């Protein structure tokens, strides 16, 4: 888990998975899986891809706060390519809510993700723009709160 969170190289993570193939399915506290930890830590596209190949069903595992790996990526420094990879692995993840009713779009808006990320999430599930969290905040609220660009705000209106 520490290698995934700490940004270890792809070679190191590959070696660890080869040495301990069962580790990819172990639960690790709040992070739940290595895929969660890597997504939370903003790991590289190649690392996320390696972890998905090692255990494809990890994409559907939720951690204690009901967050999916897509939620974790949307709330971290994950790239557009990484978020796209996660969506291709499980397109329905875009509809999942965490324990505060945040969808991945809400999480991305709150974290100030790029226009391209917001567009990708909306293209995958247009109705996400209407979904509010536990406190009634929509993606538009969260985008405004995080200081999103006028292009992002226009997309959400």
Automatic annotation (TrEMBL):
InterPro entries on file: Ankyrin_rpt (IPR002110), Ankyrin_rpt-contain_sf (IPR036770), Espin/Espin-like (IPR052420)
Keyword Coiled coil (UniProt): no
Protein name per Swiss-Prot or TrEMBL: Ankyrin
Gene Ontology biological-process entries: actin filament bundle assembly
Keyword presence, Repeat: yes
Keywords, comma-separated and alphabetical: ANK repeat, Repeat
Any one GO CC term of the record: cytoplasm
UniProt GO molecular function: actin filament binding
Pfam families, per the entry: Ank_2
Species assigned in the record: Ditylum brightwellii
Domain of life per record: Eukaryota
Lineage of origin: Eukaryota, Sar, Stramenopiles, Ochrophyta, Bacillariophyta
